[in-house]
């Protein structure tokens, strides 16, 4: 079939919206009509050329929602008409990782996914001249139609609006999941969140749900503070306006009984390795846990004095908020529909596919939280 997609032809170039050819689903695969997709900073990271796994030409996008149109041979858990959210972290329920009970990082198809291919090692997308186009994160939601493995689709309720629940495909689940699954934040904790964008705001929302007492937001952009306050931020630090960001956070958490200070939990949602260091070092001696969410460019490395860890701080990372997609994503959709989590106000811009590059401009200018393309 033919469909319309925004294609990343080369690193660093704007996406080009065009008609592409899409082959139907093979065994174990599903054809999905994408109804809406969010623009996550990770799409921009890959588009820009910073991603060591970036392959071009590719159809980016991994934060979508849509409807099943057709299923391939052997597909048993989905049928045409089902509403689905694509999962860049699939859940096969059979691999060693899924069975371990210790991680959400299903390994069933990670190898081919990282090469921009379907599990059989081929691509379903091509240009009208026959040039193959790579898949991205196993999703390619910047296309009106895509083909995905059955294990990489979460079936969700049919009354949930696509233009909101697409955000659960990455940002919402990553942020809230980082708090609940990865950090395991307890009631009464203190926390610092670095980067108050589409991910950081959901970390803040998760911290409020977990019953955090003090939630310190950190961002270079003062304009991000207003929205963060609405989601539960209690204090704001702009690193460009203080001498020492770590000290500023430590000072905010000192009490009469605790002269040391430091947050119980910190989260990096910037992808900047210097910020990751600050996030670790502002966490409390003896028990502070710092969670890396941000994705850093090729070649970037984190560093700190080992003494920071010797003295009890723990450095962790999280992908998709530690969520098991087919199991957890439908629950996130229920939480949204039941009013337990807020999404609508974070979707600051709605675009058509033709306007997708404007969405990346808004991200760069710091003017959007989430821009969503509706098909
Ligand atoms: P975003 O662009 O919406 O937000 C980033 C925020 O960080 C912005 O508000 C920006 O002003 C702020 N910022 C940038 N540099 C800063 C600095 N030095 N100090 C303080 N604040 C700074 O991006 P997003 O969509 O929220 O994504 C955030 C990061 O999370 C990206 O690196 C993205 O790739 C990553 N991510 C990771 C996962 C995962 O599963 N681990 C999932 C989604 C996104
Ligand atoms: N390709 C990059 C790494 C990108 C990365 O870490 N991706 C996250 C999800 S970001 C979603 O917005 C992830 O899920 N990682 C686990 C995995 O298996 O990719 C690189 O540096 O090579
Ligand atoms: Zn993402």
Automatic annotation (TrEMBL):
A single cellular component GO annotation: cytosol
Keywords noted in UniProt: Metal-binding, NAD, Oxidoreductase, Zinc
Domain called Alcohol dehydrogenase-like C-terminal: residue spans: 198-335
A GO term for molecular function: S-(hydroxymethyl)glutathione dehydrogenase [NAD(P)+] activity
Segments forming domain Alcohol dehydrogenase-like N-terminal: 27-150
Reactions catalysed according to its record: S-(hydroxymethyl)glutathione + NADP(+) = S-formylglutathione + NADPH + H(+); S-(hydroxymethyl)glutathione + NAD(+) = S-formylglutathione + NADH + H(+); a primary alcohol + NAD(+) = an aldehyde + NADH + H(+); a secondary alcohol + NAD(+) = a ketone + NADH + H(+)
Record's signal peptide: none
Pfam families to which the protein is assigned, alphabetical: ADH_N, ADH_zinc_N
Cofactor(s) needed: Zn(2+)
A GO biological process held by the record: formaldehyde catabolic process
SUPFAM superfamilies named in the record: GroES-like, NAD(P)-binding Rossmann-fold domains
PROSITE patterns per record: ADH_ZINC (PS00059)
EC number assigned by the record: 1.1.1.284
Keyword NAD: yes
Ligase among keywords: no
Similarity remark: Belongs to the zinc-containing alcohol dehydrogenase family. Class-III subfamily.
NCBIfam families linked: adh_III_F_hyde
Protein name in UniProt: S-(hydroxymethyl)glutathione dehydrogenase
Species: Sagittula marina
């Amino acid at each position: 079939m033919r469909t319309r997609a925004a294609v990343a032809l080369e690193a660093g170039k704007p996406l080009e919206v065009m008609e592409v050819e899409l082959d139907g689903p093979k065994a174990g695969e599903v054809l999905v009509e994408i109804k809406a997709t969010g623009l996550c900073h990770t799409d921009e990271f890959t588009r820009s050329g910073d991603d060591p796994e970036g392959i071009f030409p590719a159809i980016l996008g991994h934060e979508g929602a849509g409807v099943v149109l057709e299923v391939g041979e052997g597909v048993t858990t989905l049928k045409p008409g089902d509403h689905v959210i694509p999962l860049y972290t699939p859940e096969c329920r059979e691999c060693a990782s899924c069975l371990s009970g210790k991680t959400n990082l299903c390994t069933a198809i990670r190898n081919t996914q990282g090469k921009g291919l379907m599990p059989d090692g081929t691509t379903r997308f091509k240009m009208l001249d026959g040039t193959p186009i790579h898949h991205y994160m196993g999703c390619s939601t910047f296309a009106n139609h895509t083909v995905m493995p059955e294990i990489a689709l979460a079936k969700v309720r049919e009354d949930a609006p696509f233009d909101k629940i697409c955000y659960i495909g990455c940002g919402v689940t990553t942020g809230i999941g980082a708090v609940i699954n990865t950090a395991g934040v307890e009631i009464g904790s203190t926390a610092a969140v670095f980067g108050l964008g589409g991910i950081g705001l959901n970390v803040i929302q998760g911290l409020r749900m977990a019953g955090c007492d003090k939630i310190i937001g950190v961002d270079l952009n003062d304009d991000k503070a207003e929205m963060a306050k609405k989601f539960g931020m209690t204090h704001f630090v702009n690193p460009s306006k203080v001498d020492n960001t770590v000290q500023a956070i430590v000072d905010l958490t000192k009490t009469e009984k605790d002269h040391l200070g430091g947050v119980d939990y910190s989260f990096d949602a910037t992808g900047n390795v210097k910020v990751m260091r600050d996030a670790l070092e502002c966490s409390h001696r003896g028990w502070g846990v710092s969670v890396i969410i941000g994705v850093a460019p090729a070649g970037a490395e984190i560093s700190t004095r080992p003494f920071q860890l010797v003295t009890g701080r723990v450095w962790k990372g999280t992908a998709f908020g530690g969520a098991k997609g087919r199991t957890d994503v439908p629950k996130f959709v229920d939480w949204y529909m039941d009013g337990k989590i807020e999404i609508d106000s974070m979707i600051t811009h709605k675009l058509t596919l033709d306007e997708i590059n404007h969405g990346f401009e808004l991200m760069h200018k710091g003017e959007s939280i989430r821009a969503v393309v509706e098909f």
